[in-house]
Specification:
314 residues, mainly alpha, two-stranded antiparallel ribbon, 2 strands
Length: 314
Amino acid sequence: MSTTEAPASPAPPEEPATEPLALRKTPTRKRLIPYWLLLPGILWLIVFFAAPLVYQASTSIQTGSLEEGFKVTWHFATYWDALGEYWPQFVRSVAYAAIATVLCLLLGYPLAYLIAFKAGRWRNLVMILVIAPFFTSFLIRTLAWKTILADGGPVVGVLNSLHILDVTSALGITEGHRVLATPLAVVCGLTYNFLPFMVLPLYTSLERIDPRLHEAAGDLYARPSTTFRRVTFPLSMPGVVAGTLLTFIPAAGDYINAELLGSTDQKMIGNVIQSQFLRVLDYPTAAALSFILMASILAMVTIYIRKSGTEDLV
């Protein structure tokens, strides 16, 4: 006896699961969290960077005087006039900043290497000594160098006894038997004041290097000099690039060292901008010089980063 089974009735369609309204809004809120976190920084940049930049841009294309008032006349010739008149100060600023950056690298790299690999339990103490100058005013530190390099001081006396100043005078970086009011004094001030900006990025980069890489290089019979050239220095390039940028950029726009340690022959572009803003009261020229300095530094920094091939910064 054969039995026939009745066809199974189709199952009723499942109703789509409904989520509470609060749960459906949660992903949107999560996506907005990063923007809310960025909002204070964006507002800070708008108020204290973008707005002053726009104001300076409008000032640079104005004409007039303080008595009659300044008006926007789109006078772009101010840029050419300022660059044509003050280009020696631009060149001097770049040269002083470049020399100070190289000196900071030569002095700061061994110090950062010592802190990262050799200091041991004294590491924190040496780091405190490196950043200790920041607890003193920039102006006071520069004034201290005015005392150190005084004509009757021990430093100049030792340099004269060793006839070093005769050599530096022949090179044109000092004048006679004195150091103050010469290019050497300005470069020394820049090097001292910005040395910590070089040491700290170098130390951070060197500390990240795995010591086992040095051991592996030694197992492969590499000399210490070869290990440094082929392993340590290439891996520390992000610190080198960051340190040189942090040193060169503020040094190029500095005017305190040239004002206190140099003379009228050592004026940098920062001194010209300060004078145009506060003494001459030629605001368009000062604003144009500021923009030219910013644009030139930005161009040099961009080329330098791309040429260095540092992936962490590009």
